[in-house]
């Protein structure tokens, strides 16, 4: 039973969907959530709730479901995710393996073409993710 995801109207709704996605380890539903969510709104929707688990399932969903279809959207989500409160804290707590997950997504983005980012943009964002 796949989670049905509609566009969350506020941070509370967004948080509920994220919790359900994590509880079910449902990357496909997470990808649906990220597809209907404007990347610019991520910092507000996450407010101070960002955690390692959330960062990782977002990264894995972008990697498995979104980057192949819409690398620009994947880039935008990574960019705005890095603006979220607690981003630096969460990043500092990632394990080596978890960092490799993030690195893989950046590798896929650098192999993709999009008018939403240049390789320079990608390089500067990688520094933000400490890769």
From TrEMBL:
Localization, UniProt: Cytoplasm
Source organism superkingdom: Eukaryota
One Pfam family per UniProt: RPAP3_C
Chief location: cytoplasm
GO cellular component terms attached to this protein's record: cytosol
Domain RNA-polymerase II-associated protein 3-like C-terminal, residue spans: 7-99
InterPro entries, A to Z: CiliaryAsmbly_MitoImport, RPAP3-like_C
Keyword vocabulary terms for this entry: Cytoplasm, Repeat, TPR repeat
PANTHER family tied to this protein: RNA (RNA) POLYMERASE II ASSOCIATED PROTEIN HOMOLOG (PTHR45984), SPERM-ASSOCIATED ANTIGEN 1 (PTHR45984:SF3)
Official protein name in the record: SPAG1 protein
Gene source species: Tichodroma muraria
Name of the gene encoding the protein in the UniProt record: Spag1_0
């Amino acid at each position: 039973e796949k989670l049905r995801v509609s566009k969350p109207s506020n941070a509370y709704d967004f948080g509920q969907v994220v919790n359900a996605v994590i509880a079910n380890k449902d990357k496909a539903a997470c990808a649906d959530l990220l597809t209907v969510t404007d990347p610019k709104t991520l910092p507000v929707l996450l407010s101070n709730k960002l955690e390692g688990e959330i960062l990782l399932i977002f990264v894995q969903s972008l990697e498995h479901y979104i980057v192949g279809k819409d690398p620009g959207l994947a880039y935008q989500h990574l960019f705005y995710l890095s603006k979220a409160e607690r981003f630096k804290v969460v990043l500092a707590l990632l394990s080596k393996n978890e960092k490799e997950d993030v690195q893989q997504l950046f590798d896929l983005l650098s192999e993709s073409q999009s008018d939403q980012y240049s390789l320079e943009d990608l390089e500067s964002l990688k520094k933000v993710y400490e890769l």
